[in-house]
Design a protein that fits this description.
Family: Belongs to the transferase hexapeptide repeat family.
EC number: 2.3.1.30
Pathway: Amino-acid biosynthesis; L-cysteine biosynthesis; L-cysteine from L-serine: step 1/2
Strand content: 15-25%
Number of strands: 15
Radius of gyration: 22 Å
Number of helices: 5
Largest sheet: 6 strands, mixed
Organism: Candidatus Flavonifractor merdigallinarum
Subcellular location: Cytoplasm
Distance between the termini: 86 Å
Shape: elongated
C-alpha cells in the first residue's frame, strides 16, 4: 500500500489534469498496468512463468501497455497516457522515472541474457522514443520525442534524433523527470544543418560579387 500511495502521489504531482488520487487509481491505465506488473513480476520470480505471462497479457488487453513480467521497475514510476508502450524482459527502470505513450524499451536481436536497456533514476522518456539495447541511460537523463537511442546515455544528458545524439547540460543538475516539456530541446543535427546553410549563403554571396566584378 505504501508503494501504491507513492505512485498515486507521483502521478498527481506530474499530471496537471489529475484532480484526485481516487480518480488516478480508478481511471489511469498506467496505474493499472503497474499494479498488474507487480503481480506478474511476483509470479515470475516464483517460477510461475505461465501465470505471470497470463497476467501481463491481461494487462496489455485492458491498458494497451505491455510490460514483460521479468522487467524490474522501481518506485514512483509514472506512465503518462501509456498506449503502445512496450517494456522488455530484461529491462530495468529506476526510481522516479516518467515514460510517455509509444515508448519502447527493447532489444536489438535474439541475444541471450541482458538485452534490454536499464534506466537510472529520474529518467524521462518522451513520446514515441525507442531505446534499444542492453546499455544504461544515466540518472537524470532525458530522451526526446521519437528519438532512437542505440548507445549509452550519460547522466544529466539529453538524447535527440535518429539515431539519437547526446546534448550535455553543462553545469546544470535538474530533476528532468519532473519536467514534462518534450519539445523544447536542442537538436544537434539541426544546428549542423543551419551552420551548413549559413556557409552556403556566404559562398553564394562571394560568387555573386566575383561575377559582378568580372562583368564590369
Amino acid at each position: 500500500m505504501t508503494r501504491l500511495g507513492e505512485t498515486l502521489a507521483a502521478y498527481q504531482a506530474r499530471d496537471p489534469a489529475a484532480r484526485s488520487k481516487l480518480e488516478i487509481f480508478l481511471l489511469y491505465p498506467g496505474v493499472h498496468a503497474i499494479i498488474y506488473h507487480r503481480i506478474a513480476h511476483f509470479l515470475y520470480c516464483h517460477n510461475l512463468k505461465f501465470l505471470a505471462r497470463f497476467v501481463s497479457q491481461w494487462s496489455r488487453f485492458w491498458t494497451g501497455i505491455e510490460i514483460h513480467p521479468g522487467a524490474k521497475i522501481g518506485r514512483r514510476f509514472v506512465i503518462d497516457h501509456g498506449m503502445g508502450i512496450v517494456i522488455g524482459e530484461t529491462a530495468e527502470i529506476g526510481d522516479d522515472c516518467l515514460i510517455y505513450h509509444g515508448v519502447t524499451l527493447g532489444g536489438t536481436g535474439k541475444d541471450q541474457g541482458k538485452r534490454h536497456p536499464t534506466l537510472g533514476n529520474n529518467v524521462m522518456v518522451s513520446t514515441g522514443a525507442k531505446v534499444l539495447g542492453p546499455f544504461k541511460v544515466g540518472d537524470g537523463a532525458r530522451i526526446a520525442a521519437n528519438a532512437v537511442v542505440l548507445k549509452e546515455i550519460p547522466p544529466n544528458a539529453t538524447a535527440v534524433g535518429v539515431p539519437a545524439r547526446v546534448v550535455r547540460i553543462a553545469g546544470e543538475k535538474v530533476d528532468y523527470a519532473s519536467r514534462v516539456d518534450q519539445i523544447h530541446v536542442t537538436d544537434p543535427v539541426q544546428k549542423e544543418l543551419q551552420a551548413i546553410s549559413s556557409r552556403l549563403e556566404f559562398l553564394e554571396r562571394m560568387m555573386d560579387e566575383e561575377s559582378r566584378k568580372t562583368n564590369q
